[in-house]
Fold this protein.
Amino acid sequence: MNRKIIKQAFIKSLPVMAGYVVLGTGFGILLRTAGYGLCWALAMSVFIYAGSMQYVGVGLLSGGASILTTALTTFMVNARHLFYSISMVDRYKDAGKYKPYLIFALTDETYSLLFDGNAPDQKHATEYRFFVSLFNQCYWVTGSVLGSLLGAVLPFSTAGIEFSMTALFIASFTENWLSTGDHRPALTGLLATLLCLILFGPERFLIPAMLLITLALSVHSKRKDAAA
């Protein structure tokens, strides 16, 4: 495997590392506080790997939620990933053996790093995306394990800890804004979200906003391809 590709993927993932280790630690502490130990934190971060849903999952586990409730909640929380996937179909269609993991590991932050389609070496673009995704999950797993261990020996107040996910989304947006000269996708996301928030309210705006963003970016992509 090309070491240069691995190094480039690692450098690209560094902004997420800073967030994921902290957020994963928060999740591990929260899970430990709810009575679930290290094995639970490790298993959830390896096999579920859905940041905000893992936070929600702590409440579902501790509250004794039914399978149906858990399934419906998971779908609602993670429905946005359906729209992420649509915009990544062309990039992942020839990913071969890497495709299952790339699909599994497409979190919000990984998407923010990969959605523009840019790669240092297009010949090895799939490997580059794989390692960006893998590094990001390793950061999350590391944070989760660390949080579980710390939660077992140190007293923590978990009040307000769920806001850490919002903070990471803002950091990812800022990093993307600073690293690219084309701000139209970011502005499209902001305006579409604001419009849907006004029209549908804070409880129902997410899915309409994602639909509108996906439609707008698809139209923009087709016009860009036609102009090229």
